[in-house]
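[step 3/7] fold_predict: job queued, chain A
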Amino acid sequence: LAGSDAESKRAELASDYARCLLGMHSDPVSPFESVWVSDAHLMMQEPRDEVLKTYRAEGVDVVDSFKLPEDHIAVEFEFMALLCQRALDALEKSDPVGLELAIKKQEAFLRDHLAPWVPDFCEKLRLRSTTDFYKELALLARLVVESDLRDAA
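[step 4/7] structure written:
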């Protein structure tokens, strides 16, 4: 960003975001798990219900101001971050049982909800994006999920 006009860069990123993720393209990159893994490839399908059940089992609800389905990639990553924080809290409290449980929940969420679709989502976003920002963000997200999968194996 050094040496660039901040407003023109913001507009460029907003345009790329809208084109890729908000359906302003003939083949958008859907940020919803249901679209990627359900038989119908539509929003609000069984994967959304499953992820919502997982959140609620952990005492988590998506805030009312978030007006999108709960299987949005941002919410799924935020939930994974919460599980990671719970593992860190257990580690800091020297609670091996709590730590093991938190890690098992992370592995299950990774296996059941992130791994089946996030790498494909990231690859499509990387290919569809016109800005280096979204290309690199997609690459980073894909590498994190793939690395976590290798570590969980």
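[step 5/7] annotate
The chain is about 70% helix and 0% strand.
Residues 132-152 form the longest helix (21 residues).
exit 0
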